[in-house]
Design goal:
This protein has about 550 residues and is α+β, with helices and mostly antiparallel strands. The protein has helices spanning about 5-20, 45-50, 85-90, 145-155, 195-200, 205-215, 215-220, 265-275, 285-295, 325-335, 335-345, 365, 375-390, 410-420, 435-440, 460-465, 480-490, 495-510; strands at about 65-70, 100, 105-110, 115-120, 125-130, 170-180, 180-185, 230-235, 240-245, 255-260, 280-285, 300-315, 395-400, 400-405, 425, 430, 445-455, 515-530, 530-535, 555. The protein folds into two domains: about 5-55 and about 65-225, Dipeptide-binding Protein, Domain 1 (Dipeptide-binding Protein, domain 1, Alpha-Beta Complex), CATH 3.90.76; about 305-520, Dipeptide-binding Protein, Domain 3 (Dipeptide-binding Protein, domain 3, Roll). A four-stranded mixed sheet has the order 1-10-9-8, covered by helices on one side. A four-stranded antiparallel sheet has the order 4-5-7-6, covered by helices on one side. Strand 2 and strand 3 form a beta hairpin. The two termini are about 20 Å apart.
Length: about 550
């Protein structure tokens, strides 16, 4: 059983950033071969020309990796989405400037950026690009494509949106030094900058292709520099990727392709894995027990904490959710330990906006002081009724749930909890992923249960994308300027010991606002058939940082 500590993962990543902020380039350090049992060093040139994804044993070429998910991707645009229903079939067609090492998650390694330097003040990073990379249509990738992509993510073209804006807000300007050199200047120190660039969403698009076809083309097509390219999409059935024969990185990918099947019914998805029709599958606690009993060593199971969590969003643009007493009452009404036991099979943890595994997490004794986190469920519900009465709803009120397909169990549990304090919910409005995202972004709902995930565990990543004013995944419409002030204050502090109390202050102020109600932070159980080699589930939700698939091979 593989267990990875998120605390270890993030501490290592932040240490890497701190080294960089002192002016040392990771490309100038000696990388290690992640597949070597002894951890022997290999030269930088070798990293740049060969795949740093070797695993124990000699990789074999060929085979199709098969996965399954609930429904279709909303579209293929990595910039406008935040769901693994899209990312795990789209990112393999692209490259980042940097990526996390798939076997050492505390380490950032080159991807399209061959090397990089950071200025002594930490506010300027110069990236030197590989010079033999082509997009899948045969056109060269150059500095203009990097600038174009980050400018798009920072300020999307008219009519489009970007969920990456918050993480790139500290960028002041992007300069093209020459065809293969890009310089990014920040407007302030930013502890999470390089990890932000390494997460599995920061793909480089083709400037010429987007401008000739229209920016909307990336919603419909995949056209990147990645190890795979789109072969076929049959809506409601499958997405199939095939090996890119002109991929720039020597030796990979090993697979001939990747296929994602759309299987709405959870029992049918699990059956497809049990019978070997699917090679890799995210398991719940009951499924894990069944697999261990029936298939034994034919299946490998990885368990770890995950940067994923379950929430309840309330539309603060609509009454009565514009009233903080109402939002706090709902938080008090929800029995979080009961949720973890009933819905997650005991495999969750209570936490704030920063996950409980983070070095910046509020201590349990501080968390317990916040609305809804106290240990006495009966006392919490009594407080919920008092707050509703104070807010002018002594007998409660009626509302509705909008629910993304696959998350009906969240809504069922919440319906029962809210009923106990007088809040009645109408029949659920259940939507596929695409319409559900539209409803979330447009605030077209009353209450919205949701499962969130992030690729990066850092307070900057969480708050910039979810909690500051205008955060794209806020899904509440709340804007509190003090949250912004506290966010900027902690973000500029590069010393982890000094940053921690600043993050705690931010958490203690922001959580009672109930921008989101956190129900539980999750754990992840991943099952793979034993012939699947090279895939290690990283701490990000849904494997966001390792779903390029070029490190995977099939031993059959």
């Amino acid at each position: 059983m593989l267990t990875i500590s998120l605390r270890t993962y993030f501490a290592g990543a932040l240490f890497m950033v701190m080294v960089l902020m002192l002016g040392c380039s990771p490309a100038a350090q000696t990388p290690t071969n992640p597949g070597s049992p002894s951890g022997t060093s290999i030269g930088t040139d070798e990293v740049n020309t060969k795949a740093p994804f070797l695993t124990k044993g000699e990789p074999k070429y060929g085979g199709i990796l098969r996965r399954a998910q609930i429904d279709d991707p909303p579209n293929f645009d990595l910039y406008s989405n935040s769901t693994n229903a899209m990312q795990n079939v789209t990112w393999p067609a692209y490259n980042n400037l940097l990526i996390f090492d798939p076997y050492n998650f505390s380490k950032i390694i080159p991807d399209l950026a061959e090397k990089w330097e950071v200025s002594p003040d930490g506010k300027q990073v110069t990236f030197h690009l590989r010079q033999a990379v082509k997009f899948s249509n045969g056109t060269p990738m150059t500095a203009k494509d990097v600038k174009f992509s980050f400018d798009w993510m920072r300020s999307p073209p008219s009519g489009l949106v970007s969920t990456r804006q918050g993480g790139l807000e500290p960028i002041d300007r992007i300069d093209i030094v020459d065809d293969f050199t890009v310089r990014i200047t920040l407007n302030r120190p930013y502890a999470g900058f390089l990890p932000t660039l390494a997460q599995g969403w920061m793909a480089i698009y083709s400037k010429d292709y987007a401008e000739s076809k229209g920016h909307d083309i990336y919603k419909k097509e995949m056209m990147g520099t990645g190890a795979f390219k789109l072969k076929e999409y049959v809506r409601g059935t499958s997405v199939t990727l095939e090996k890119n024969p002109n991929y720039w990185q020597s030796g990979v990918p090993y697979l001939d392709g990747v296929q994602m099947f759309m299987i709405p019914d959870p029992g049918t998805r699990f059956a497809a894995f049990r019978t070997g029709q699917v090679d890799l599958f995210g398991l719940n606690a009951d499924q894990e027990n069944q697999i261990r009993t029936t298939l034994g060593d034919k299946i490998n199971i990885q368990n770890q904490d995950s940067i994923s969590w379950q929430t309840l969003n309330m539309n603060a643009k609509r009454k009565p959710f514009d009233n903080m007493q109402v939002r706090q009452a709902i938080s008090y009404a929800i029995d979080r330990p009961g949720f973890i036991k009933a819905i997650q099979g005991g495999l969750g943890r209570a936490g704030g906006y920063v996950p409980p595994t983070s070095q910046y997490a509020l201590p349990p004794e501080e968390l317990a002081k916040l609305p809804g986190y106290g240990p006495d469920a009966a006392a919490n519900k009594a407080q919920a009724k008092k707050l509703l009465t104070d807010a002018g709803f002594p007998t409660g009120f009626e509302t509705t749930f909008t629910v993304r397909k696959g998350q009906e169990d969240l809504a069922v549990y919440l319906t029962d909890q809210l009923k106990q304090v007088g809040i009645a919910t109408a029949p659920m409005k259940i939507l596929d992923s695409g319409p559900a995202y539209d409803a979330a972004v447009k605030l077209d709902f009353d209450m919205l249960p949701w499962g969130h995930g992030l690729a990066l565990d850092d307070p900057d990543a969480h708050y910039s994308e979810l909690y500051v004013c205008g955060a794209f995944r806020d899904y509440s419409g709340l804007c509190d300027m003090k949250v912004n002030e506290l966010y900027i204050k902690q973000s500029q502090e590069l010393d982890p010991a000094k940053r921690k109390p600043l993050v705690w202050d931010m958490e203690k102020y922001a959580i009672p606002l109930q921008i989101k109600i956190i129900l539980s932070w999750g754990k992840a159980q991943l099952g793979t058939w034993s012939y699947v080699k090279g895939y290690v589930q990283d701490p990000s939700a849904g494997g966001y940082n390792v779903n390029h698939y070029k490190q995977i091979w099939m031993d059959k």
